[in-house]
Amino acid sequence: KQWYQRRVRGDGSAIERDRMCCEGDRFRRCPSGICQRYGKCPSSHPYVYYNGKYCCKVNKEKHYKHQKSKCDGRVISRSSLCCESDQFTRCPSGICNNAACAIRNE
């Protein structure tokens, strides 16, 4: 489905989480509000980053000036691109959320 409106993504390409419309309006609302089919980071590396592809052992980015605000040593987030001291592992399920025990000190 192609739907053009300000702040709406719907250009007929493959559907992703940030898309706002569905081909032929064939969709079902998630019963719990926001559906997630992501796995969890392992408890040894509970902090997700790099859009869910990697899990970091510590809750901090490393400093890497070429990545600017995505690697400036702050608290790690899903959009961060690096992990302090490269203490990372790939998400075992492909795309992850934080492990249930992850606590952010923001």
How far apart, in Å, are the first and last alpha carbons?
Answer: 39 Å
Q: How does the overall form come out from the CA principal axes?
A: globular
Helical stretch tally: 0
Largest sheet: 3 strands, antiparallel
Pairing-aware structural class of the strands and helices?
mainly beta
> Mean pLDDT score, rounded?
77
Uncertain segments = 1-9
Strand order of the largest sheet: 2-3-4
- Indicate the radius of gyration in whole angstroms: 16 Å
Fraction of residues in β-strands: 5-15%
How many DSSP-defined strands?
Answer: 5
| String of helices and strands | EEEEE
Percent range of helical residues: under 10%
Could you characterize the architecture of this molecule?
The protein is mainly β and 106 residues long. 0% of the residues lie in helices and 12% in strands. It is built from no helices and five strands. The strands form two sheets. The chain has a three-stranded antiparallel sheet, with no helix packed on it. The chain has a two-stranded parallel sheet with strand order 1-5. A hairpin with a 4-residue loop joins strand 2 (47-49) and strand 3 (54-56). The termini are far apart. Mean pLDDT is 77; it is low at 1-9.
Describe the structure concisely for a colleague.
With 106 residues, the protein is mainly beta. The chain has strands at residues 39-40, 47-49, 54-56, 88-90, 96-97.
